[in-house]
Amino acid sequence: MKDYKLKITAGTMRSRHLSFSSNDLLKPTKSYIRETIFNIIKIDNKMISLDLFSGSGILSAEAISRGIGKAILVEKNKKICKKIILEFKKLNINNYEIFPEDAIIFLDRFNHLGYNIIFIDPPYNANLLKLAINKLKKNNLLNTTQYIYIEQNKKKHNQELVNLISETHNILKDLSIGDVSYTIAMKR
Known about the structure:
This protein is α/β, with parallel strands linked by helices.
């Protein structure tokens, strides 16, 4: 079982890393994309992020490294949640909560919290991105969230989802790199 390392690109934990097993079938957000996200989104210590389908937790670790006040992570796989907790402990990260549950169910249970940033990076082989965005809209979270980040498979890029986000947000980036298509949007 080989481990791979995900390096944090900037902030107080720059060049530190999270380790994960290659057997976890994760698809962490590429470092180039993370840098792009956080060059656009200006983080401060009053902000709260919601990391749906958090996988490795690298987006939350980046946000925390850059000074976010609190990160909320939602990951259905309990084994991966335990690994995130261990990795965050190694990095001395304390300003987070992790919920080992289905992200769509979570959005119904915790739709009242004020999130400044929502990261949505679900597994590509499911319809979870569409379900999550529709749930955000239904629960009025699109109207109240300052920044939205979504990631999808380039070959199955769903422009309809980007259009849905553009009803409430300005699309700042809608680009592809390799097999990944990503969108960063800011509330109007």
